[in-house]
Amino acid sequence: QQEKEDFQGKLKLREHLSQTASKSEATPAPSKNIDLEMKQLQCKLKNSNTEITKQSTTIKSLKNQVQGKEERIRELQAKISQLERDLTMKRHLIEDLRSRLKGNQENEKTSNETLESLERKVKALAEDKKASIDSLKQRFNVAMKEKSQYEQMYHKAKDELEKKDLKLTKLESKMIETECAMTDLETAASQHGLAKQSAQALETLQNELLLTSDKVEEFKTFVKTLTRELHHSVQKLRTKIELAKKMGGMKACKKGLSQECLQLAASIINVSTTDRYEILQEGDDEETAKAKMEFEKDKEWLQHIQKLLEAQFPFASYLMDAVLEKLNEKKKLVEEYSSLRKYT
């Protein structure tokens, strides 16, 4: 550009000189050296113009390259800012993950501690369960022994009852035979005068009949006392179970009981049926209704036993079923009371 300005200045000077030369035509023509210099300068001007155009094109291409590089720089700067934002976000994420890792490690420690405590509790529960199973096995063995004893008693009573039934049937048949014999003897005595001997035989038969009736009455009293004792023991077990339940509830509310309260609770075990219902009335209505229902069932059972004793022969199988039903009920109550007694 500077060379161009210099050439333009020189051209202007040459034009001025040419104009002055044209004005002064009277003066002699310029020399050939000036013309040559003018032509050289014009050539140089053309060359400079061409060079300028080349330089302008190169400048334009360089400008375009510069613009492209600036755009590339802006893109790279935008990418750098985005990467910086991503880097900050990743740093925050790493810090968050580190804090979560610390929290998870602390939670893992606490979970390991709770797991160890749970394992200890499971071991203790397994030992308690084993001990309870052993105690239940012992109670089951005791209950089986009691059951075998009651079954032996029942079989003895059944055998005695069958024997007495046979004796009674024999006595009835003998009574019929004696009645027939008496009629025969009366007719014979009227004919042969043997009335005195028939009276003696009749008296012996009456004595035997009275003896058998006494034995039957004795058997009935035995059955009645057995049923009463069984009924009383079942009621006593129910009372013990209800008191054990109440004592368990009192233990849950209040951990310690005084010795006087314990003695009082022990003395209540031997209460009567009416006192038992008075104790139950202090509890909830559901237990009272249940106790009344059990009392009615026991009453019906006793009436059923009485009907069986007053019924026609044979009644041994029905009596056996009724007694076995009450014995099974007593066995269940014994198991329930033993389990309650363990925890109270």
TrEMBL record:
InterPro entries, per the entry: CNTLN
Biased composition (Basic and acidic residues): 1-17
Family annotation (Gene3D superfamilies): 1.10.287.1490
Top-level lineage group: Eukaryota
Residue numbers spanned by region Disordered: 1-34
Transmembrane segments: none
An annotated GO BP: centriole-centriole cohesion
A GO CC term assigned to this protein in UniProt: centrosome
PANTHER family: CENTLEIN
Annotated protein name in UniProt: CNTLN protein
